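Pasting as-is:
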Amino acid sequence: MKSIFAPVVALLFATSAWGSLFLVGKPLLKTLDPVWFTVVRYALATLLLVVLVQGFGRSPWRKLRDHLARLTLLGLAGYACFSLLVFFGLARSVPSHGSVIMATMPFTTLLVGWWLDGRRPARASLFSAGLALLGVATVANIFSPAQPAGGAMLLGDLVTLVGTLGWVLYTRGAASLPDHSPLEYTALTAVATLPWLLIAATGATLAGFVPAPSARVLTGLLLPLLYIAVVPTVLAALAFNFGVRRLGAPAGTLYLNMVPVSVLAVHALQGQAPSATEVGGVALVGLALSINAWLGTRTARAQGDAVLGQGIGTPAHGLPTAATARCPQ
């Protein structure tokens, strides 16, 4: 259990920080287009990441040169596709819908892995993911909506759902670069992606599709933009990549169910007492996470026994060794 404590805490921090991203980011979209919101967000974040990777990375710029194409494609999936589409959808919907849609990523990750790898998820994994999703839906009270969603809101939710595929691919992509630490993977994908974000935003503005923010608008939004760049972007991404590297993509994305729960917690701190359905939803999410943690502990113990068995000449019954079980491909 001790071996999974650090990645579990990291994933809980990351998902809680992303919950705050929905709450802080939604008001900014009234004056800042999602395209330029994404550019400014990652421009500020990349500055911090460059400083961190320069100080703590191991030959990061050589790795950037050697894997530039792969890092660029993964960064476009995780930063451009995910951030741009999610906030485009958020501008037309509400934070609770966006947080619930993010909770579909455990299903998406399991199914994408099944499709690309031919690796059928365990029934217990599918059950825990479904239970967590049910809890999230209960927290968001989507079973008894006050009003039917309009066309614009449905479009926004659909765009958000498509955007989550980008983060699933970005999460899986970390396994293709095992020599990159979580910091290096986070920083180098951001560095490789930022020029393309700037080119795309500038081109869209020149073509008249996207209004460019004025210096006055950016100055007025500086504090929330800095918070978004540092906490839910840099620190949360580092924590999430660390947790996924330790626990694997399917287990890591299951913790995304905590995003709407963290939104509920913030509302509670603001004096909005949770309802019975919200408390019940939180309990379901907690149960799902407990099941997942138990499965992770049992799997780690089985892998350890397999490695020990190989070391003393005992058959390992086909279990992967520690060297091959770092993260699903």
